[in-house]
């Protein structure tokens, strides 16, 4: 009946924006109802005015408390001034926000309207009352009850993903209108079925008043339909904007990155670090495109890293690159992910520039005996002509720069010959987990 899937940050944000003006308008409306009851007190028999004032007092305090509940600056002022009693009430009202639970303002208004209803009907009702006073009082009672429980039924706290409502209140929510309507029927119908009093409207008026309260249930269901529609509409808009952003990143930034790489490669004065960063920019551009499409759940995954890094390789079947199956599910920390990206870009670029036709990559994270943190290992095999000796001795090469960078993470870069030809590059560093 009530959709638990609506308990999401997006729906909650929508509900909060709906609730804020509703609370303020509802508090003013119920305060107006209480003011109306005090005006009607002028037509009560003189001897019953003290009784009427006493029974109106609780509801009036509830109206003031509900009004204060929506004034954050006032509550903060009361807490800061350390006023005995009032500061404690203010702290309670602040803490009761965004929670589907009974709070002081709700209890005062609830019991207050019961007290007011008993003033017009029930075993302690004031008699005699002019028919118009009774009718206006009944209308004000129904308006007050409707406003209060409309706020309770559609409160944003029902949709909070951080502080979900308790199981008991969730069970009470669908039957709350029925419970309220039953209590209202018992009090308003008392003069008819116990005293056989001919009240204005009779039993039909009582049933009509209670039916209005029961309409809170379909109203709430319609409200949740609107919430679902708003969530879905915003989801569609978000996906459209993500797609547009992804196209922008791909068409503008990626093309600019290719142009930059061409210029850097043509510049004999460009250093190894500059060349490496320019190539890494392509992988970063692909990451940005995927993030624009909402692929945040893949962050830190080697599979995402592999997809982004392979964007630097030439297309058209000139080279084959494979990631071994076990590496697809490996997750890396933020620092490890960045190091792996940097190393993969450089090693794969060097492999295909050296004439390799096939590249095989493996990534592992393994615990090391006696080490406080695991070790990340990245292996790149290629079928190229092999790595010339002393390649790391020249500090101007990108591989030497990378090896120096790895030493800061207790890491190393080594090369060895593969059986059947080609090179195996192995990178290791102490993980940043």
Structural class: alpha+beta
Number of domains: 2
Principal-axes shape call: rod-shaped
The radius of gyration is 36 Å
Q: Which residues form runs of ≥5 with pLDDT under 50? A: none
Q: How are strands sequenced across the largest beta sheet?
A: 1-2-3-5-4
Q: Which range best describes the helical content: under 10%, 10-25%, 25-40%, 40-55%, 55-70% or over 70%? A: 55-70%
Return the string of H and E elements.
HHHHHHHHHHHHEHEEHEE
Q: Proportion of β residues?
A: 5-15%
Task: Give the number of helices.
Answer: 14
Chain-averaged pLDDT: 82
Work out the number of β strands.
Answer: 5
| Spatial gap, N to C terminus | 44 Å
**What kind of sheet is the major sheet?**
5 strands, mixed
Structure description:
The structure is a single chain. By secondary structure, the protein is an alpha+beta fold. It is built from 14 helices and 5 strands. The protein starts with 8 loop residues before the first helix and ends with a strand. The mean pLDDT is 82.
